[in-house]
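Re: folding output
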Amino acid sequence: MTKEAEDLGMQALKIREKIQGNTHSFTLTSMDNLAWTLRLQGRHHEACILMNRCAQLSTETLGIDHPITRPHLWALTILENKDECSTCFRRKEFKEAFGKDCHENRG
């Protein structure tokens, strides 16, 4: 079932990127959903790369306080806190949005 979800998620993302562009909020949401699907398949590194891209695009185009950006930053941090990502997204942006360091809850 997750392979089918991945295929549908990839299709949705490609269509949204083509029609709405890669910085539209619906496109970013599709990107976020696909990243979680990849994570559920155990493809943590790929999920983190995609979520990192999503968080960066969202922050750059919509701003850090936008209601679409904050969940993407939070989701990326959840992946990173599970040591599934090799690099952290901009700690400054996370701290600005949530008032704490993204690695504060590790342990």
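--- second protein (sequence, then structure) ---
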Amino acid sequence: MLAIIDPHLPMVPTFLINFVLRVLSPWVYSAMKKLLTNIFSDPSNEFPKRVARKTELYGLVRQRVAEFMPLLLAEEAAARAGT
């Protein structure tokens, strides 16, 4: 089933943008973080097994994250020091 809804608005209302950014996004982030923590805390779960089997993909992801995290943490520390 496909539904097309067009409210005929020239722009998205500010209250809707604020709701999505301040309420919905943090809730989705928290829910996903909790779900992933639960899934990967049990090594017998299917997802950790897939990660272990696909070393060519997840090894690259792990390497990229290892390169990126120090930069992210340095930016966050600089932002905290500047405020």
